[in-house]
């Protein structure tokens, strides 16, 4: 049943399939811009404006260190002895999050609780450049898509997505394993989760009891995305203006933020910026289960138009898009990883 539900709900479709209409829209905008890679002029601070092969750490480290988790940039080829020595030297402690420095859509992310799990994750990773971050245990996460035109001092928030980490809720009848297999968001990964999560899977669940099974806020890993437009306020936009001002040449992108509570976030306290994405950032509120596919495409196209308009303004300011050949080289190299 869960596989059938994933088939007819577009939020679970493969990226390439869902985005077919967007490819045609890109072609129209490219013809209008007379430049196939027009979008690479949107965020001068980022390689390819964040479209592909962009080092997340290269601009994350431009922010105050208190704004993001303690982060170590490493090569996958590093010896494990040297890595553990560096972790000890810089006082990183488990649990840690291992993720690709230029990854996307939550792929290749591992939460590791000890040295053995870290060694296994390094072996399994397909990326050469990796980030190790201290795991942030703030209970809430939100994705904030921010846009600003080069001639403006103030930007706006065009998408807010609140995230519900994947939990199982006991019904007092089925076992935890049966509940796992029935959960639409992770049923296809039930064997992996069962092996990783310490839980008495064959025991009958307790009515109303919640068990967190995936603490990473990625849709690909089972997190539920909800439209949070009701949270959009001037105070929130002022906060994002402040963040974006730390990154000259950043005009379009999404801040993924973990925080203790909403009031403290608005005050600029008790938060961590997990990562910042560029023009590859989706308005992830479209994956709300109540969103229609027509609404989703409408919002995707409107954001593509914003990217086009920002890039055109930057081109008039003398910022050139990347030429097609080197862009395609990076795109192919990324796809073949």
Any descriptors?
12 helices, Dna Ligase, domain 1, 34% helix, 337 residues, D-amino Acid Aminotransferase, Chain A, domain 1, single chain, five-stranded antiparallel β-sheet, four-stranded antiparallel β-sheet, globular, alpha+beta
How would you describe what is shown here?
With 337 residues, the chain is of the alpha+beta class. The protein has helices at 2-8, 15-18, 20-33, 56-60, 80-89, 115-124, 176-182, 190-196, 234-244, 262-266, 293-316, 324-335, and strands at 71-75, 96-100, 110-112, 129-134, 140-147, 156-164, 166-169, 210-214, 224-227, 252-259, 271-277. It has three domains: 19-68 and 138-164 and 224-321, 2-Layer Sandwich (D-amino Acid Aminotransferase, Chain A, domain 1); 70-135, ATP-grasp fold, A domain (Dna Ligase, domain 1); 166-214, no CATH class. The strands form three sheets. The chain has a five-stranded antiparallel sheet with strand order 9-6-5-10-11. A four-stranded antiparallel sheet has the order 1-4-2-3, with helices on one face. A two-stranded antiparallel sheet has the order 7-8. Strand 5 and strand 6 (156-164) form a beta hairpin. Helix 3 (20-33) runs parallel beside helix 11 (293-316). The radius of gyration is 21 Å and the shape is globular. The two termini are 33 Å apart. The mean pLDDT is 90.
